[in-house]
Design brief:
- Its cofactor is pyridoxal 5'-phosphate.
- This protein is of the alpha/beta class.
- It has 2 domains: about 120 residues, Aspartate Aminotransferase, domain 1, CATH 3.90.1150.10; about 230 residues, Aspartate Aminotransferase, domain 2 (3-Layer(aba) Sandwich), CATH 3.40.640.
- It is about 45% helix and about 10% strand.
- The chain contains 15 helices and 11 strands.
- A 7-stranded mixed sheet has the order 2-8-7-6-5-3-4, sandwiched between helices.
- Strand 3, helix 6 and strand 4 form a beta-alpha-beta unit.
- It is globular and about 65 Å long.
- It binds 4'-deoxy-4'-aminopyridoxal-5'-phosphate.
- The site of 4'-deoxy-4'-aminopyridoxal-5'-phosphate has 13 residues, from helix 5.
């Protein structure tokens, strides 16, 4: 029966990684990958994580299942990290945490929950969005639509977005990126979040906030402005959180589905359904990543170390954004690319066209996806002058 199965082309990013590896140009630059890089181009294990793992190795007494909602000790620390210490939502017992295999796993749980418990509700995602969103929701049986997010000049199109949200049928689900929008890097201001809140209320829409980069934009609490605003002002919110980036534990698959309901009783009802969805997908989540996070966040000392390392990563990215624009000044291109310094997170919609991206790869060995999305963590003080020169050449 497999005879008739057709092969699909590989992931564009994986192709890019292969081509980069084969390139012998010593000046080659990889701006394609989706992980954080330090100044040496490495994605190291964070010190706080290493220390937590050493403690776990010594103290772990069992490898038994941790249950469909994951380890309670993990939920206990993730809820205040996301919703805020002393959050009124937590005080009211309105929020439930379910440990998941990464943010992706949390998204799939959310998708299955919507498909089974809220039948007939469609999902709306920004155009563009993280490509996996386009796969996950239809895979669960949901109908997916897009709302505009950037305009023809590659800038945030907030008016277009808000106008489209106002047209969405009552009761549908709207996916919002909490911060560090992937792929564009354009985030909503606090005032814009408040306007979105009003439309969600008016249209009785259910927000699903994808929170994959907490701490990578402005700060742990600052980045949570949107999800906290919605959770505190709406009866129902879904949040998918990821520890992949902020703890650097990508391969440990550590995320969390947070369901916020009107009251504690409805939360327990929803929570019982989420357990079924988790059980049907993978039974129990992997334990190790959640144990690391919980070990770090239950210790004041390790939390301080982790916060410092996270701040270092965030500051590095934001400094590189400013230095990129600065490096383009001698070519008179600083204004054209000024938005790169204003964007947040690891990714930037540079505004480079697919043709310019092709030339950068073919003539300069600079690799990025054809949408012009660059991983800012791939910039370095060594390669910025070369990058600027190359960008100037393809802008001629
Ligand atoms: N949402 C967005 C917007 C992302 O960029 C990512 C990771 N690239 C995820 C979710 C999923 O992250 P994880 O690796 O934790 O599954």
């Amino acid at each position: 029966m497999f005879e008739q199965i057709e092969r699909v082309p590989g992931d564009a990013i994986l192709g890019l990684i292969e081509a980069f590896k084969k390139d012998t140009n010593p000046q080659k630059v990889d701006l394609g990958v989706g992980v954080y890089r330090d100044a040496q181009g490495n994605t190291p294990v964070m010190r706080a994580v290493k220390e937590a793992e050493a403690l776990l190795l010594n103290n772990e007494t069992t490898k038994t299942y941790i249950g469909s909602h994951g380890a309670p000790a993990y939920g206990e620390v993730v809820l205040p990290m996301v919703l805020g210490q002393g959050s009124p939502v937590l005080e009211a017992g309105r929020a439930s945490a379910t440990q998941s295999p990464g943010g992706t796993g949390a998204l799939r749980l959310a998708a299955d929950f919507i498909a089974t418990q809220l039948p007939g509700k469609d999902i709306w995602v920004s155009d563009p969005t993280w490509p996996n969103h386009l796969g996950i929701f239809p895979a669960a049986g949901l109908t997916l639509h897009k709302y505009p997010y950037v305009d023809a000049d590659n800038r945030l199109d907030f008016d277009g977005m808000l106008g489209a949200l106002k047209q969405i049928p009552e009761g549908d689900v709207v996916l919002l990126h909490a911060c560090c929008h992937n792929p564009t890097g354009f985030d909503l201001s606090r005032d814009q979040w408040k306007q979105v809140l009003e439309v969600l209320k008016e249209r009785k829409l259910l927000p699903l906030v994808d929170f994959a980069y907490q701490g990578f934009g402005e700060g742990l609490d600052e980045d949570a402005f949107g999800p906290r605003l919605l959770a505190e002002n709406l009866d129902e919110v879904i949040i998918t959180s990821s520890c992949s980036k902020n703890f650097g534990i990508y391969c440990e698959r550590t995320g969390c589905l947070i369901m916020v309901a009107k009251n504690a009783e409805q939360m327990e009802n929803v929570r019982s359904q989420v357990a079924i969805v988790a059980r049907e997908n993978y039974s129990n989540p992997p334990a190790h990543g959640g144990a690391i996070v919980s070990e770090v966040l239950h210790s004041d000392e390790l939390t301080a170390v982790w916060r410092e390392e996270l701040t270092e990563m965030r500051d590095r990215i934001n400094t590189l954004r400013r230095d990129f624009v600065e490096a383009l000044k001698p070519y008179g291109l600083d204004e054209k690319y000024a938005h790169v310094a204003e964007q947040r997170g690891m990714f930037s919609y540079t505004g480079l066209t697919p043709e310019q991206v092709d030339r950068l790869r073919d003539e300069f060995s600079i690799y990025m996806v054809r949408s012009g999305r660059a991983n800012v963590a791939g910039f370095s003080h060594e390669n910025l002058p070369y990058l600027a020169k190359a960008i100037a050449a393809v802008n001629d």
